[in-house]
Specification:
The chain is 44% helix and 0% strand. The chain is built from 3 helices and no strands.
């Protein structure tokens, strides 16, 4: 079933995590990836939040996995 496939995929991803490079490609994130956007940008995330606040404080560009101007 779909639920079993999703569970298998998540378990496999978790098992392979120690072998990953530690970054993510943001275009492949799904809406349930939790804190993956922050993880994808690593140490640059806080700087990107500041830029987002300056240039897109109203979060007009929000239809993707974006930097939240609130830093959440």
């Amino acid at each position: 079933t779909t639920d079993q496939n999703v569970e298998w995929t998540r378990n496999t991803y978790t098992a392979l995590e120690p072998f990953r490079a530690g970054r993510r490609y943001v275009n492949y994130l799904s809406s349930d990836d939790g804190d993956a956007v922050r993880t994808a940008y690593g140490p640059n995330y806080e700087r990107l939040v500041e830029i987002k606040r300056q240039y897109d404080a109203d979060n007009v560009f929000h239809c993707n996995h974006n930097i939240d101007p609130e830093g959440c």
